[in-house]
Amino acid sequence: MVFTVNLGKDNYLQFGLVFEGATPEALHLLAGYKPKLQHEIILLLSGKDAAKLRTLAGKKELIEEIIELSNHVIHEDEKTGIKEVLFTKFLIQ
Hints:
- The protein has a single domain (2-92), classed as Band 7 domain (Tetrahydropterin Synthase, Chain A, 2-Layer Sandwich).
- It is 47% helix and 30% strand.
- The chain has 4 helices and 3 strands.
- The protein has helices spanning 24-32, 34-45, 50-53, 56-74; strands at residues 2-7, 11-21, 82-92.
- It has a 3-stranded antiparallel beta sheet with strand order 1-2-3.
- Helix 2 (34-45) runs antiparallel to helix 4.
């Protein structure tokens, strides 16, 4: 998945994600909930600060939030749902 979102008035964030499932079924569930998950991730990012996301700690925090959000959307946990989220690109301008 690739996202482009506004961060405040002066910045935007473009990033790509790859999800790793704890089971093959988790990725199948994720595919069925893709529109809802995209919506929820965009809402999550609407309140983020560009300066914080530029830091390693900010990126790691975002990953944890996306994992938690993804598992909530598909009604699973890290043992049966999404266990990891990997950035494939990350650009703030």
